Amino acid sequence: MNYILQLENIMDCDEVRKDLELVRELNLPESCITAGYVRNRVWDVLHGYDYETPLNDIDVIYYDPTDITEERDKLLTKLLNSADKKDCWSVKNQARMHLRNQVAPYESIDDAMSRWPETATAVGVYLDELDHTRIIAPHGLDDLFQLKVRQSPKYTDTAYFMSRVSGKQWLTRWPKLTMVETMIHNK
Question: Of 14, 77, 138, 156, which residue is least crowded by CB atoms under 10 Å?
Fold first, then answer.
């Protein structure tokens, strides 16, 4: 079975479907649920866990250069939190995140995700208009499914990458993970 089918199968449950439908109802351009929501589920399944690792947040990203106000994201976050009692939604317009990250503007969510610290985190899912689960993965799905923690090639802050891995205790929580050493020079 290829990784796309595996990911579609892992995400094929009522809770995920409900979450994806909530995000789709916002009608945001290029929107998806991403990061730990996807990564943690895959790693939990590949570790054979009978439970899901609790989420700190549910990351929703979209790309809309016509309104890059933080207030809009706060309103969208509030809408999702009031529609769903998980109270951990976090919505971010990737058309403005370059300001926080002090880099050149991103061109799309794919471009923004390609610059995230880890390859396995840069995976998003969404429902298309025909109710099919679609995947965005600028670095592919190999590292996610091969349980590899690798710094994204476009992410140059190795110290921050290492602090994320350590601080989130991924190697303890998911002991089958392997750190992949990559030589990335800060620019």
Answer: 14
